[in-house]
Amino acid sequence: MTEPQTELGNRPLFYSRGKALGGSSAINFFVWMRGNKPDYDAWASLGNPGWDFNSLIPYFKKPETFHAPSPADELAFKLDYNAADHGNTGPINTCFSNQYGGTHQHWHQTLNNLGIPSRDSFNGSNWGVWTGLTNVNPINRTRSYSASQYYRPHAARPNLHVLTEAMVRKVIIQTVGGHKTATGVIFSHGGVDYTVNAASEVILSAGTIQSPQLLELSGIGNPAYLTPAGVTVHVNSPHVGENLQDRIMNVLLYELDPSVENQGPLKHPLGLADAEDEYYTNHTGLLTVLPNDFAYLPLNKVMNESYVNHLRSLVSGTDHRTLSIKSKLDFNKFLGNLEYVFDPNILFAVGNPDPDKKYGTVFQMLQYPFSTGHIHIKPPPVGVPLSSSQHPVINPRYFEGDGIVDMLTLAEGLKFADSIARQGPLNAAIVKREVPPEPAPGTETDWLQFVKDNTVSDWHPVGTCAMSGHGIHKGVVDEKLRVHGVKRLRVVDASIIPVQISSHLQGTVYAIAEKGAHMILQDFECKRRRRRGRRCRPHH
């Protein structure tokens, strides 16, 4: 849970993540996409050469084996794609669904009628309406994720050992040759602590929440947080745990016409049994239907120019990250500032829906948040030793400071979200709005209050070990993901993302992992060549 959020009526929010082999790739919504070219170019502008969009394209493709749809499905379901934008030899299978909910056929036309074109989203520009790609194996319609595709095929390798139900306590930091150096890891398993020594280096991939926590527990961070918790400071790294950025979400619910086909039968034992039988027999049916109706919209499709200029005038921050996001708060730029998704099911618990009726959900998600928070360790209760099993303080500070722009953007965006449900042909499937309730005659919905009362996390936090090639006073890791101030220690996960992107994170995190692995292998090979008295090859 987060800390109570001041601007959200002091509500604490759930901060979910994958706690399984494979992490969040084992539990997410199967969304496979990438952001806009300017999103990644902004990373490079922070002193991180090699992290611009064009440089990342090989790593976007490397994890993927893309399976093209049949010509019939391509036409019937409006599946826009360019095979050249995808990989064809990677571990992760991606494909389009071959079965959709009862309103899918209306989605593209409805958005087209609102002035939004249907477009492919993988070429560095993701605005428009499109049918989402999934990380699913099309042969058996099973999830294709890191544990099934990267680990299991290689589980028998003698130099690979994976231990589940183990908790890392800290990275061991020692002074070697006058430099702070990561020499190993202490972890707990079955109630016993163990120490593992690192022959080459330590790689931390605990995610946006726990990577900064483990750095702080290891003595790497801001003394203002480490000292009160009783942690010896090895490296004063002020940005550890800072720069937390998270996409945020609103949910609208609509009653559907009873004739609309959805996954309602799964709520009943017989319907679920039938669906399971069909799935295990033919790999088809309701259990293969996923939310795939996406639209990413620029501000000029959602609000007028004067309001965008008003929002820009409210931004007071002058740091590089804030200015990067402000540059995207531009009426004349075609970027996916807001994401909209529709699904003819209740995908999020809101309101008090009638169990005998059908409902559809409209999601709105803000892509470029100004709200910036932090994740830090805290002193344990008296008499209790500090431990990584204790939750850190998670405070996204939603809508605080320049985050007021996020709140106003979402409120204005919800007017557009509601207009989607009222536009044909989708409106033919909708009876009325359920959440928030339709306003009384002669009144209007208070969208701003709705945002304050109902905004939740979209579970895409980044930034707490932010990458910056300008040193420890600007970030936590350098462009090779090496922790500033420490030798033989890297962070390779979503926490290194310095500025949030307009995209679900999965595809980008795989690219980070592939690029990180490439750099680790390069450095390993370089050290080996030097030991033999040979020069290192130039890095590419």
UniProtKB/TrEMBL annotation:
FAD binds at N28, F29, F30, V31, V168, W459, H460. Keywords: FAD, Flavoprotein, Oxidoreductase. Its cofactor is FAD. Pfam families: GMC_oxred_C, GMC_oxred_N. One of its GO terms (molecular function) is flavin adenine dinucleotide binding. The keyword Oxidoreductase applies. The active site is at H460 (proton donor), H504 (proton acceptor). Belongs to the GMC oxidoreductase family. This is Uncharacterized protein. It comes from Orbilia oligospora (Nematode-trapping fungus). The lineage of its organism: Eukaryota, Fungi, Dikarya, Ascomycota, Pezizomycotina.
